[in-house]
């Protein structure tokens, strides 16, 4: 019986198919910064003194805020502390290779100078500047790739946009009209006026058939053929795959893919959410994604004044310090040849296995089972210190130093000859 192609099958077939000509930088990059910033950042998870839990960028939906009332909040949104160079330098110091920011999220508010709608940061707020222009330049000036997140279907401000069911009757909406009058013209603005976009990150597809989505993509590609489109453009037509929120695949996955994680428990800024992931957790998520052949895009949620939360800045800088020493074991690697072990994960380069050791076995000996590789030497990546090893059957045992030099993640390099 013909069954609906599962997402996995669709992407497996895709990954064996023709990849985008410009995909390799993305595969080598491994570490991206996601930025959710909008009017919701100004509210910080609160409405009329009531706190809302879940994700801050959904407050209009959670509190069922009428459009007119939500619109009015723009009049007091003035992120005067916003500093594009500061944000971009933080990303650089953190070892980030690409930055993707919300140009327009589900709330329908354009965080750039849009000529298509006056519900934007230049026309509707006292800020009067275009932060997307400033950030795009500051990021690319520091050699990182830049891209936009655009909520192509959900738009709670536009009467024909998706999913505002508390102001408008969803069944009466003309989604085509919304795409024609807002989504497509705004995407064309973003892909024409902000320089090279390495990534266009879509979300929650809807309102378009597979054929219409292909036409939608083709019309945008004309503006920037090198841009990579994320999988949430829908119908399996993206250039790389994104997993669900804060989801990591259970096993190595072929083809280009990305895991996206919040830094605390919210994408948009939430005053009361301090559950920030430690540098250790961030570094281990990055190594785990790389060990399975993919990327980690970690999110930050700046507040309404334009500041990135202190914990995010501090923990990103600490991650950057680890990457200063160990970047070779992440950037440009491919999935590990040794499956995840109790002690950690591995990543690969020709003739090398990078052993990412998170937990030192009580015995002080690291077991690599079913390893029929011709080991030549093993040493600590940080200082090149050789470590002893021996082979017993098809197992390799490595004598670890008394203490791991970095409890977050200590990397040893196993060099081998010939095929693994
Ligand atoms: C990155 C996030 O993306 C979406 O949320 C989703 C979309 C799709 C899935 N999914 O496919 O599992 C999960 C959450 C947005 O609704 C959310 O606000 C945030 O921007």
Automatic annotation (TrEMBL):
Q: What class of enzyme is it?
A: hydrolase
Q: Is Signal given among the entry's keywords? A: yes
Query: Where is coiled-coil annotated?
Result: none
Report the EC number(s), separated by commas if there are several: 3.2.1.51
Q: Which UniProt keywords apply?
A: Glycosidase, Hydrolase, Signal
Domain Glycoside hydrolase family 29 N-terminal, chain residue ranges per copy: 8-328
Question: What family name appears in the similarity comment?
Answer: Belongs to the glycosyl hydrolase 29 family.
Protein name, please?
alpha-L-fucosidase
User: What organism does the UniProt record list as the source?
Assistant: Olivibacter oleidegradans
| Lineage, opening ranks | Bacteria, Pseudomonadati, Bacteroidota, Sphingobacteriia, Sphingobacteriales
Full-sequence range covered: 26 to 445 of 604
């Amino acid at each position: 019986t013909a069954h609906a192609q599962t997402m996995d099958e669709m992407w497996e077939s895709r990954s064996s198919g023709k990849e985008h000509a410009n995909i390799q930088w993305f595969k080598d990059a491994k570490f991206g910064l996601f930025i959710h910033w909008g009017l919701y950042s100004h509210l910080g998870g609160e409405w009329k003194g009531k706190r809302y839990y879940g994700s801050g960028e959904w407050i209009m939906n959670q509190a069922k805020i009428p459009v007119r009332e939500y619109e009015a909040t723009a009049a007091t949104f003035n992120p005067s502390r916003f500093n594009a160079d500061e944000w971009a330098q933080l990303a650089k110091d953190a070892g980030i290779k690409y930055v993707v920011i919300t140009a327009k999220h589900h709330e329908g508010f354009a965080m750039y100078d849009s000529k298509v709608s006056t519900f934007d940061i230049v026309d509707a707020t006292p800020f009067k500047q275009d932060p997307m222009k400033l950030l795009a330049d500051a990021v690319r000036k520091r050699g990182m790739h830049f891209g936009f997140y655009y909520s192509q279907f959900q738009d709670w401000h536009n009467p024909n946009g998706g999913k505002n069911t508390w102001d408008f009757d969803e069944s009466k909406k003309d989604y085509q009209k919304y795409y024609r009058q807002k989504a497509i013209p705004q995407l064309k603005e973003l892909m024409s006026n902000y320089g090279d976009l390495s990534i266009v990150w879509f979300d929650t597809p809807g309102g378009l058939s597979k054929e219409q989505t292909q036409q939608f993509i083709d019309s945008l590609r004309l503006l920037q053929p090198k841009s990579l489109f994320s999988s949430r453009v829908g119908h399996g037509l993206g250039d790389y795959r994104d997993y669900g929120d804060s989801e990591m695949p259970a096993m190595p996955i072929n083809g280009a893919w990305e895991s996206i994680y919040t830094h605390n428990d919210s994408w948009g800024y939430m005053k009361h959410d301090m559950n920030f992931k430690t540098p250790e957790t961030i570094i281990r998520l990055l190594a785990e994604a790389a060990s399975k052949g993919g990327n980690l895009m970690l999110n930050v949620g700046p507040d309404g004044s334009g500041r990135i939360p202190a914990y995010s800045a501090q923990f990103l800088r600490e991650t950057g310090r680890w990457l200063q020493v160990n970047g070779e074991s992440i950037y440009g690697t491919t999935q590990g040849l040794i499956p995840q072990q109790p002690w950690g994960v591995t990543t690969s380069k020709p003739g090398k296995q990078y052993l990412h050791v998170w937990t030192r076995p009580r015995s002080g000996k690291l077991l690599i089972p079913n390893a029929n590789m011709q080991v030549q030497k093993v040493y600590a990546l940080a200082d090149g210190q050789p470590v002893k090893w021996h082979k017993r059957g098809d197992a390799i045992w490595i004598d670890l130093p008394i203490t791991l030099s970095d409890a977050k993640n200590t990397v040893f390099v196993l060099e081998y000859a010939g095929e693994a």
